[in-house]
């Protein structure tokens, strides 16, 4: 017999504690001891945020592999958030981190906290415990069948988690509650504040002139002071809500009637279009994926419609390095005119608004929803199904999966579903489900290489400072891409001594097979098998970057970009003009969103740009919330990563002092670790 000193840490948050009976069984290489009920007389055990210590007499089980922890209902079914159990046996301390919920009337295995590859387990009992954990995980995280038309999976869309009455959202994935100020709370509060202002502006609503009155209680986007300016229009292509569209143009696009005659006066004296293209001074914004996508039409009144044309624009790099728009085409058919700054002010303003509307519709579905939220979901599901909590990859990636499965389900139900938020004000919403058609269309083009930042920049021809001296997204994101890559590779090097160990890792092989079978079509992925350390690092590096830096890039400026609705109306109430000089200011106002649609656009922009109070960021003050690793090499890799992030934070602060508009969202201490909104 021996004495076990057992310290149990309960998680923080609403409902984390329990009044249930908690029992623990020690499982070791020689024997098992237990179950032992953990309780102290006249003490309220397992309260949220508490650490409780107990002394237990039991058989010496030898080297400890895992615990079996039982949550037994006494009066009311009570789930319990277990952070960690620490067992001290005669000075020999073993840590058993869990960081998950133990549901009422269930027993779970809690593995010893050392990071270990499956081929390195020490005894058959440890292997059995690990296998039991994964078997239970696969019954909790189930792939959606794809039979529900509202939740299509491969090949139309990425694989996703089944969430139904039979398979509810796993309790460990539940979203932040009201006390942590989730995005639903922000949306409701903002909408309430906007409606409080509504009586002041409703009688003479004018989206071009009244937005400042509407926004007085919710804050004013800084773009409100600059949005009419052509340089501001071009600046947003480099550091706006979606800076991933701009690409170097090699010539005037097919079907765009724009010649030196139309360009006269828009380029520098003596510079022809051919000269500008040869000097790599013309760039393209192309929203052609909107071509053929159904746009909103009212169910009862087909005359009520919205437009977001498959527009495109050419930008010119001036001698001083700044960009300026020189041509905008609002559609692909022969009747789509090319508009320039030489047109009337109303015509040119309308052209820019329609193009921003096109950008916004495509951004919300492609850059934001498909390429981050939905493309990353199958990687998360496959990892949670196949990596035991003791696996180094699980420990490396787990914090980067926080809340994503829940927020994706919330997006499908509140934003994308029929009569959801997007149906209220976005052009490609509505009964014909244009937004879903757009998602399917853009997913068909997705490939893993597009998610690698250097590959994407090269493909768009904007990786060179000689081409674009000032490109804040590229310049702030690339150092983060490099730092994340080094962190991932340093961590893996602590556990994989050779490529052969990757090939022999049954959990990694199961993860990749599961992903290719149920999550992402094999032709979209870079490898048939994960056989080397570099291949595994490439996958984890790319996923970690996309759920943190890339999602922040295309999400966190939504209020700044869309909150001032004239800058980027998401639903235009009129077809693009087909004649020059006919558009009056009254026509422009009539094309703009209604008061209710403006309120909705502002509110969702605010909600999707506001971080929760419990947000965990890359450069977290005081360190990350949950210490998954105990190993010195892994801890050293993390500290090296933090040092690189601190250096990058200083570089960004210096760079922002010299930018016309600071690019603040990619400061490392403002980038969430995961997709949480």
Summarize the structure.
With 677 residues, the protein is of the alpha+beta class. It contains 20 helices and 13 strands.
Question: In words, what does this structure look like?
Answer:
A 5-stranded antiparallel β-sheet has the order 9-10-11-12-13. The longest helix is centred in the middle third of the chain and has 42 residues, at 345-386. It has 677 residues and is an alpha+beta fold. The protein is elongated. It has 20 helices and 13 strands. The protein has a domain at 2-140: Lipoxygenase-1, CATH 2.60.60. It has helices spanning 124-140, 183-201, 211-214, 230-239, 260-263, 273-278, 345-386, 392-397, 404-415, 421-425, 434-445, 453-460, 472-493, 499-503, 506-519, 533-555, 558-562, 585-591, 595-607, 632-657, and strands at 2-10, 21-28, 32-37, 51-58, 64-72, 80-89, 92-102, 106-111, 247-248, 282-286, 311-317, 323-330, 338-339.
Residue-averaged pLDDT: 94
CA radius of gyration: 28 Å
Q: Which runs of at least 5 residues are low in confidence (pLDDT < 50)? A: none
**Multimeric state of these chains?**
single chain
CATH H-level homologous superfamily name of the domain at 2-140:
PLAT/LH2 domain
> How would the global form be characterised?
elongated
Instruction: Kindly name the structural category.
Output: alpha+beta
Identify the CATH class of the domain at 2-140. Mainly Beta
How large is the count of helical segments?
20
Q: Report the major sheet.
A: 5 strands, antiparallel
Report the end-to-end length measured between terminal Cα atoms: 51 Å
Shape-level CATH architecture of the domain at 2-140:
Sandwich
Strand order in the largest sheet: 9-10-11-12-13
- CATH topology category name of the domain at 2-140: Lipoxygenase-1
